[in-house]
Amino acid sequence: MAQRLALQRLLSIPARGPLASHGRAFGTSAGRRSTFNVQDGSDFQDRVVNSPKPVVVDFHAQWCGPCKILGPRLEKLVAKQEGKVLMAKVDIDDHTDLAIEYEVSAVPTVLAMKNGDVVDKFVGIKDEDQLEAFLKKLIGA
């Protein structure tokens, strides 16, 4: 198991390299600023737990097919909120400690966080209407 995880990490580094570094870059569009990749536990604390805005946390994995469908769908809807909510992407293979801390047992798992507290969550794929309702509930719209 450990060897498989190490191999998955090794194989996924080139594909994620530009995206991972983009997570801290300041983009010019609302979509680029509202979604970021979590770099480590300290980054999660600073940008998610201590965020003044609500944050959607997408726990995913590179090898997860449903994650590849849900992630872009959720990013698009978060970008449409024009900065009212942020989206943090957490790769469970890179951040096992965060996955354990937030009791993630399957991917995709999406948490809604406000003021550092988990206020809602779902596991699996949702359609756009369900995701919009999830975001509206989090934002309070």
From TrEMBL:
Gene3D superfamilies named among the record's database cross-references: Glutaredoxin
CDD domains: TRX_family (cd02947)
Keywords associated with the record: Disulfide bond, Electron transport, Redox-active center, Transport
One Pfam short name: Thioredoxin
Matches recorded under InterPro entries: Thioredoxin, Thioredoxin-like_sf, Thioredoxin_CS, Thioredoxin_domain
Domain Thioredoxin span(s) in chain numbering: 24-140
Domain of life where this protein originates: Eukaryota
Molecular functions (GO terms): protein-disulfide reductase activity
A GO BP annotation: cell redox homeostasis
GO cellular component term of the entry, any: mitochondrion
Family matches, as NCBIfam families: thioredoxin
Family membership noted in the UniProt record: Belongs to the thioredoxin family.
Identification of the protein by name: Thioredoxin, mitochondrial
Organism for this UniProt entry: Oriolus oriolus
Lineage, top ranks: Eukaryota, Metazoa, Chordata, Craniata, Vertebrata
Gene: Txn2
